[in-house]
Amino acid sequence: MQISRPRSVLLAGAVAVTLSATALPAAFAAPSSTAVISEVYGGGGNSGATLARDFIELANAGSSAYDLSGFSVQYLPGSPSAGSLWQVSALTGSVASGGRYLVAQAAGTGGTVALPTPDATGTVAMSATSGTVALVSGTTPLTCKTAADCAADTRIVDLVGYGSAVVREGSGPVTGTSATASVARAASLADTDDNAADLSAGAPTPVNASGETSGGAGPGDPGNPTEPGTVRVHDIQGTTRVSPLDGQSVTGVPGIVTGVRTSGSRGFWIQDATPDADPRTGEGVFVFTGSAAPAVAVGDSVLVSGKVDEYYPSTTTQSITEITAPRVTVLSSGNALPAPVVLDAGSVPDAYVPSADGGSIDALTLDPATYALDLYESLEGTRVEIADTRVTGATTAYHEVWVTIKPNENPTRRGGTLYSSYTDQNTGRIKVMSLDATRPVPVANVGDVLSGTTTGVLDYDSFGGYNLQATELGTLTDHHLRREVTRKQKGKELAVATYNVENLDALDEQGKFDTLAAGVAVNLSSPDIVSLEEIQDDNGAVNDGTVGSDATLKRFTDAIVAAGGPQYAWRYIAPENGKDGGEPGGNIRNVFLFNPERVDFVDRPGGDATTAVTAVKTKKGVTLSASPGRIAPTSDAWDDSRKPLVGEFRFHGKPVFVIGNHFASKGGDQPLHGRYQEPTRSSETKRVKQATEVNTFVKSLLAADKSARVITLGDLNDFAFSPTMAALTGGRTLKPLITTLQKSEQYSYVYEGNSQTLDHILISPGVRRFDYDVVHINAEFADQASDHDPQIVRVDVNAPDHGHH
Fold first, then answer.
1. Is residue 678 reached through a cis peptide bond, with omega within 30 degrees of 0 on the bond before it?
2. pTM of this structure
3. Short-list 394, 400, 398, CA closest to 456
């Protein structure tokens, strides 16, 4: 299951406890005649402060530029404890001769004046009254906690201790800092390695590399302008995914505030009320305020100055164009918002995204009339409106819901949108979230409808791509989706099911056991055999060497009995500790449950974590060398992955071989919506190797007895149309049953609004009569015990073989 997390931010306002300390002066290597720390201010955003952020200012007294590449500024509390750590802010660029370099740190909730555009930004909440700041050659955190130890560290270029700091240069720290006072070096930038002599307290005067100061006192800086500058939002957005002004400072960019985000990635969106005529150039942009709460409201007319930045949520995603370290002038409030762009089936292209032959599409000129992702990118930060959209991915724990603006695009029978091939992407899917925390998106299941209009700002994140940050939500129309119940198997039918129970262990709440058990006893109608994936060891994620899962399985099988099912027995082979992937410490494995009143398990010793099971040819047909056994467990195909479990069963006297699988996950694959197109499916290589191992084993069974009844099933983590399935079915050894269903039924999992198949049941030619069903009880529901739907096949083992033996 995917987990959505906002960009993390740190809140300012921490005030260090000051303790008196006495120490001998520390002899630092040599005073710096070039780069020095010229000013330190930790009161930003505190009560009574004017400036909204803390800062550290550097200066260069040398005759040539001072390169800061690979350098950092680091902060330590004034009275460090044993657990205190130096906090690091990395630097880039250089300080010009005689120039300044501004490092913004954390913001608080007070203060009304922004810093000039910083040259670097950290997240350190510095104390207003006591602390130590160091300019360091390198970005590895310092470890010294005393002045003497720090004096011996040759990486320290300059150091300032203020207030009552234990770590300082000279006989004492510089004093006088407060919410309204910084400490600054004299205009000469003299450094005698004595903080008390070299610096003094006064009003904060931050200056950046461009000479700008807060309030506009610096050369060439209009401060908080009241007239628009020359740059418009569409100039910032440009005609490609990356701004032509990336990394550059902009002044007085006009716009109307269309949305405000007060948690996670804090900031607000502005949109130009007078757009240009080019559909490629967006008219909206996000203004990132970092840890500071945005001091604007929807409907404000503003001028924004700051630095243009392309923020990549992860290395393979597209970027979000932002204005960072903003200074904002509010000109007026209560203005009408720009009319939203209507997104519907007629306006969104059917083609998904241009190809760059696996490379980056960042530099490609947008073509919003041809490609859906180009259209969405051209609308990034812009107000949009959707209407009467069907839910294709249920509401998540993070209050997100997936809808489609194309109701006729690959519909499933129950209201979803089918993901049917790598080349036929669903362009109408879009994620909806609410910007109003008091009114989150409603709890919705697949097939429900967000009726009426939903309006908001189009945004992008790494968890699904383009999304609508709603300021107005439609109302929920409940289509009353029901969980399916499959029919009971007939007396002559062997019923075999697969179910991924999502990291089940004996420490889980009883409610999870009860819901999963009802799925087996009621919805699956108590199959004769259930192949389970993601059964963990008995203490779950506790990593203490435990590998057994009998306590987990006893709780589960007892819950099945309580739900009206039979008393199942179980078989599994415990993995070697830490060798099968999954949650660290969890030791997930495949497990067979079986109803001994209906089916016999053939126990044959010799199966263990590392011994390969083999097919043994006998006069009566094929048997297993060990039952249960594992397929090629020492093959590198299974490194850090679950090994297939093979069991020999007898039903009505006939042998049936069941192979339970859980192939490697899709972790590491590039996203469908990312900047690399077509995306690389790097995890596929391993699954193809795994599928080949299973195929080879099935061929060995069929070589010994071509009529052998083999059922291969489980969470294969891949699609019916994937190379993994081609490798698994190669040589016509296995028939995938998912493709025997109607197209609109071919799914068992919903991801980012796409209904797709990761779970499969396949049968050998010896299984001649079957009835197959995917039982939809989880994937489409907001309230789910697992993110996978189980599936079942009912087999007539006595079906005539038409002369084949």
1. yes
2. 0.75
3. 400
Residues 6+ apart with CB under 8 A from 397: none
| DSSP string of 123-149, one letter each residue | -----SS-EEEEEESSSSPP---SHHH
Kindly indicate the confidence band of residue 712, based on its pLDDT and cuts at 50, 70 and 90. Answer: very high
Confidence of residue 20 (pLDDT cuts 50, 70, 90): very low
Tell me how far apart the alpha carbons of residues 304 and 223 are, in angstroms, rounded to a whole number.
10
With contact defined as beta carbons under 8 Å apart, do 738 and 760 qualify?
yes
Residue with tokens 């053939």: 602
Q: Which two tokens stand for residue 154?
A: 């040759």
- Helix or strand (DSSP H, E) at 102: strand 100-107
Tell me the CA end-to-end span of the chain in Å, nearest whole number.
45
Structure confidence at residue 215 (pLDDT):
53
Return the DSSP state at 709.
-
> CB neighbours (10 Å) of residue 363?
11
In the DSSP assignment, the letter for residue 358 is T
SS3 of residue 267 by DSSP = strand
Q: Are 548 and 537 in contact (CB under 8 A)?
A: yes
Spatial distance between the Cα atoms of 394 and 746, rounded to a whole number of angstroms: 18
412, pLDDT greater than 90? yes
Beta-bridge partner residues of 627: 604
Report CA-CA distances (Å) from 52 to 90, 201, 206, 471: 21, 19, 12, 27
- The sign of the torsion formed by the CA atoms of 245, 246, 252, 258 equals positive
Convert the pLDDT of each residue in 573-602 to its tens digit.
999 999 999 999 999 999 999 999 999 999
Average pLDDT over residues 51-64: 92
Of 463, 457, 556, 558, give the one whose Cα is nearest residue 512: 556
pLDDT digit string (tens) for 233-255?
Answer: 999 999 999 999 998 889 999 99
Q: Per-residue b/e over 133-150, b at no fewer than 16 CB within 10 Å? A: bbbbeeeeebebbebeeb
Which helix H or strand E contains 696, and what residues bound it? Answer: helix 684-704
- The neighbouring-strand residues paired with 87 are 75
Phi, psi at 306, each rounded to 5°: 165, -160
- According to the model, what pLDDT value does residue 109 have? 82
The SS3 of residue 524 is: coil
Which candidate, 739, 767, 506, places its Cα nearest to that of 659? Answer: 767
CB 132 within 8 A of CB 56: no
pLDDT category of residue 48 using cuts at 50, 70 and 90? confident
β-pairing verdict for 66-67 and 94-95: antiparallel
Is the pLDDT higher at 424 or at 486?
486
Residue 190 predicted with pLDDT over 50:
yes
Q: Pick the closest to residue 183 from 162, 169, 213 (CA basis).
A: 162
Three-state secondary structure string covering 734-800: CEECHHHCCHHHCCCEEECCEEECCEEEEECCCCCCEEEEECCCCCCCCCCCCCECCEEEEEECCCC
Residue 343 has pLDDT above 80, yes or no: yes
* Amino acid symbol at 768: R
DSSP tag of 586: T
* DSSP reduced 3-state for 330: strand
From residue 159, how far is each of 104, 154, 173, 179, 689 by CA, in Å? 17, 12, 10, 21, 56
> Is the distance from CB of 11 to CB of 291 less than 8 angstroms?
yes
The strand pair at 429-434 and 465-472 is best described as parallel
Cis link prior to 628 (omega < 30° from 0)?
Answer: yes
**Largest Cα span, the chain:** 103
Q: Which amino acid, residue 727?
A: A
Task: Report the candidate in 299, 294, 305 with the shortest Cα–Cα distance to residue 328.
Answer: 305
